[in-house]
Design brief:
Spore Coat Polysaccharide Biosynthesis Protein SpsA, Chain A; 16 helices; globular
């Protein structure tokens, strides 16, 4: 069993060397301060919302946009009702959005919907009508200062900016809490640290802003892989764009609560990572060889962790099966495996604990659930392993996610507990 111990030690050592810098990231927000903003300039913004059968939630998003502490005449809300079979278009129009309806069963996915929406906007408005474009999902709700805070960072000169991603339904169950902790950690201990260290941040799904210049450089929206947000990030990092982060712009979105739904979504993410790495991996590696830390950071976010994990599992399972077939003492065979699993659990639990403690006041659920979900977070992370392995061999297509928690900002924060319980229950 010494051979297995040595293999596991080697894998752990490689993992530690590759990801040691993310340990340093944890300390950065506590020892460095955000740079002061430059003078703020008011900009005109287009809000882009891609919605597929989102009649239950889209009005709350539009309401939160209209309640922004930012001049409303400088914000125009656009919705693409993408292959909808419900009243999404009608609800969005009644709420005050400019709505375009799209029906295309061949080119399916958020990337195609955004491309269609942007082309429609350019047909109806002058090319310089908007200085920047926000991208939100229909289930999102914005903090009332969201646009004003993003505008401050935009005025600093960043052409792409992402924001602090929080959750509407953290306390529903271990699955929604798992997602929420993952996004909170990404905001606090990845993107915020990157911003403070003056390296590029990463766009994640929803709640980001890009300038008119970015759109002009790419000739429109050209990102159509399963994870169009990651593709968008990798393309611009490779081409030398430094993506910014605004820690004071808070967006809330709805997380899945059913494991079947979570499996489908994360299967798409895993397959999307493979697509992005296949397309942009060589350019990222070239950037790494040239000493571009952002390329290294983005590469680490996509690939090595899951490759090392799957490799370790295959090796350990092979040893267990071989030991069982040869009649070895299974206690001796399983010892190194159980030890590796224990250390992995501790690592993820520590990750969840650090994030929970630092973001405690921003997590809207009971203290009991905050603590409980620290211990279930490793289970959520471990489920990525079979999902990622399945994504290697399964054809994955974009599928819409079901959203039904129509919650206002007040309900999310729990200002009225009765309304909150009604929304969740």
């Amino acid at each position: 069993m010494d051979t297995l111990k040595n293999i596991n030690f080697t894998i752990a050592l490689v993992f530690s060397v590759l990801y040691l810098y993310q340990l340093i990231y944890i300390a950065v927000p506590f020892i460095k301060r955000d740079k002061p903003h430059k003078p703020t300039v008011l900009h005109r913004y287009a809000v882009l919302i891609s919605a597929r059968n989102e009649e239950a939630v889209i009005a709350k998003l539009i309401e939160s946009i209209k309640n922004q502490n930012y001049p409303q005449e400088l914000v125009t809300i656009f919705v693409v009702a993408d292959n909808c079979t419900d009243s999404t278009a009608k609800v969005a129009r009644n709420a005050g959005a400019v709505v375009f309806e799209r029906f295309d069963n061949q080119r399916i996915g958020k990337g195609y919907a955004l491309d269609y929406l942007i082309r429609k906007i350019h047909e109806s408005y002058s090319p310089d009508a908007f200085d920047g474009y926000f991208v939100f999902d229909a289930d999102n709700v914005l903090d009332e200062n969201y646009i004003a805070e993003m505008n401050r960072t935009f005025s600093d000169g960043y052409k792409i900016i992402t924001s602090y991603r929080n959750s509407k339904n953290y306390g529903d169950n271990w699955i929604s809490a798992g997602y929420s902790l993952l996004f909170l950690r990404e905001s606090k201990y990845l993107n915020h640290a990157r911003m403070l260290l003056n390296t590029s941040c990463s766009v994640s799904g929803t709640g980001y802003l890009f300038s008119r210049e970015i759109l002009e450089k790419t000739g429109g929206w050209k990102f159509f892989l399963l994870t169009e947000d990651i593709e968008f990030t990798m393309y611009h990092v490779i081409h030398g764009e430094k993506i910014g982060y605004c820690s004071t712009a808070v967006i809330y979105d709805e997380q899945p609560v059913k494991f079947s739904q979570s499996w489908k979504q994360r299967m798409r993410w895993s397959r999307g990572y493979l697509q992005v790495f296949r397309k942009y991996g060589p350019e990222l590696l070239k950037g790494i060889l040239k000493g571009d830390f952002s390329c290294f950071d983005m590469c680490m976010a996509m690939m090595p962790a899951i490759v090392l994990t799957i490799l370790g599992i295959i090796i350990n399972l092979s040893v267990i099966i071989a030991g069982f077939c040869s009649g070895d003492n299974m206690k001796i065979v399983l010892g190194p495996v159980l030890k590796a699993m224990f250390y992995a659990y501790l690592m993820f639990a520590s990750m969840g604990a650090v994030t929970t403690i630092s973001e405690w006041s921003k997590i809207y659920t009971t203290a009991f659930k905050k603590i409980l979900y620290i211990f279930t977070f490793p289970l959520f992370m471990v489920t990525y392993i079979p999902i990622s392995m399945a994504a290697l061999f399964t054809k994955v297509e974009w599928q819409p996610m079901e959203h039904n928690k129509a919650m206002s900002l007040r309900e999310i924060r729990g200002a009225d507990r009765k309304l909150l319980k009604r929304a969740i229950g």
